[in-house]
Design a protein that fits this description.
- The protein has 18 helices and 10 strands.
- The chain is an alpha+beta fold.
- The chain has a single domain, classed as Cytochrome P450 (Cytochrome p450, Orthogonal Bundle), CATH 1.10.630.
- A hairpin with a 4-residue loop joins strand 1 and strand 2.
- The structure holds protoporphyrin IX containing FE.
């Protein structure tokens, strides 16, 4: 079926920013695999089909040429540099080679050992807040936490973290690979920011090269020096990816998750009564309002998804956030329930590209929510407007005003 048959709901338009979930239900009920001419792509919305699609080796992650084509046609004169081609845009064997170089830094064991350090950062961010009072949680905690954690892992000096954060925010608008609906100025700024960031990384690597550092950037440079394991472009594409993939996503987990919790006072009381529920609460936050709404794939061969024929070369948009609200998988999917059983949400994707930073993001989310509730037991939503950032895929809040 094509989206015109159901009145062609405007996908990715501003009207979907406030609440995309009713549109997902309409799309899924019409056809879980729907052709949307304005996107020139299939849009997949059922849990079963999205989760199978993420694991399907016949669907390629090689989006680089599409990004390049769309960006260069939108912004004549822009050149998309090959160091933008990171592992998230690759298939095996290149994907596996690059992923294997950094996967050890993100295993649950390594991440668990970072708990004390991350808690210390959170305590530092929250220490300036006095009660009674109010704060913008995005500003005080959700923004600074992920960038500080990853900057430390990469070995970036603390004084540079503000520049780092700005670059990361600017670049993240092009992370999803589809620049079609974005304002030109934002796309241009994103490409410029990427050049600046790569130059910055080059200077850090040049300074630390050959040194004893145990940070990720030095480890990647060492792998490049040892030869054959990664190219120079790949070194920088990996560093940029690690910075931006975990930044705004984790910010949005904290913001969207806290908003859901504070908007459901019964769930908030339950969590306050039993702080050990924070683990399942964060899983429900990831399901209920997923920080990454979708990802894309390209059919390598003719194939079928849920009985629909997809032709080789066609694009498939896997709507993760729609899958996470599929009533066929999650009973009463629009209910926010921090004790939901059988909550196998797919906010971190699935299959070979399953989020490398999932354990880290979960830990940051759990510690942030736990710390907010234990420090400020009367935490409530303030009266500030709830507005979403202008990024359909990386869904998150501009600010989150709370009273403490
Ligand atoms: C709540 C926070 C996060 C969410 C919701 C999230 C979501 C995702 C998703 C959906 C994918 C798969 C994309 C695809 O299949 O096309 C992914 C991949 C990835 N994520 Fe995350 N992410 C989060 C945090 C992080 C963090 C903290 C890091 C690292 C510091 C990170 C690094 C990566 C990397 C490197 C990939 C690519 C993996 C690959 O291609 O094999 N993410 N993430």
């Amino acid at each position: 079926m094509t989206s015109e048959a159901i009145g062609g709901p405007k996908l990715f338009g501003p009207e979907m920013l406030a609440d995309p979930y009713p549109v997902y239900h309409t799309l899924r009920a019409a056809d879980p695999v729907l052709w949307v001419p304005t996107l020139d792509a299939w849009v997949v919305t059922s849990y079963e089909a999205v989760s199978a699609g993420l694991r399907d080796a016949r669907l390629s992650s090689q989006r680089f040429d599409r990004i390049r084509g769309r960006a260069e046609s939108k912004l004549p004169g822009t050149t998309v540099d090959p160091s933008m081609r990171s592992m998230i845009h690759m298939d095996p064997p290149d994907h596996s080679r690059l992923r294997s170089l950094v996967v050890k830094a993100f295993t649950p064991r390594v991440v668990d050992a970072m708990e004390g350090r991350i808690q210390g950062m959170i305590d530092g961010f929250l220490s300036g807040i006095t009660c009674p009072g109010r704060m913008d949680v995005m500003d005080v905690l959700a923004y600074p936490l992920p960038v500080t954690v990853i900057a430390e892992m990469l070995g970036v000096s603390p004084e540079d973290r503000h520049r780092f954060k700005t670059w990361s925010d600017e670049i993240s608008v092009i992370l999803s690979g589809d620049v079609a609906g974005l304002p030109e100025a934002e796309v241009k700024r994103a490409f410029d920011a990427r050049h600046e960031l790569v130059d910055y990384f080059r200077s850090v690597v040049a300074r630390n090269r050959g040194g004893p550092g145990t940070d990720l950037l030095t480890a990647l440079a060492r792998a490049e020096d040892e030869g054959g394991r990664l190219s120079e472009d790949e070194l920088y594409s990996t560093a940029v990816l690690l910075l931006i993939a975990g930044n705004e996503t984790t910010t949005n987990l904290i913001g969207n998750g806290l908003l859901a919790l504070l908007s459901h006072p019964d769930q908030l009381e339950r969590l306050k009564g039993d702080p050990t529920l924070v683990t399942s609460a964060v899983e429900e936050m990831l399901r209920y309002d997923s920080p990454v709404q979708m990802t894309t794939r390209m059919a390598k061969v003719d194939l079928e998804i849920h009985g629909t024929a997809i032709k080789q070369g066609q694009w498939v948009f896997l709507m993760i956030a729609a899958a996470n609200r599929d009533p066929a998988r999650f009973p009463d999917p629009d209910r926010f329930d921090i004790t939901r059983a059988d909550n196998e949400q797919i906010a971190f994707g699935a299959g070979p590209h399953f989020c490398l930073g999932a354990s880290l993001a979960r830990l940051e989310g759990q510690l942030a929510i736990r710390s907010l509730l234990s420090r400020f037991p009367d935490l409530k939503l303030g009266t500030g407007a709830i507005e979403h950032r202008n990024n359909f895929n990386l869904r998150g809040l501009k600010s989150l005003d709370v009273v403490v």
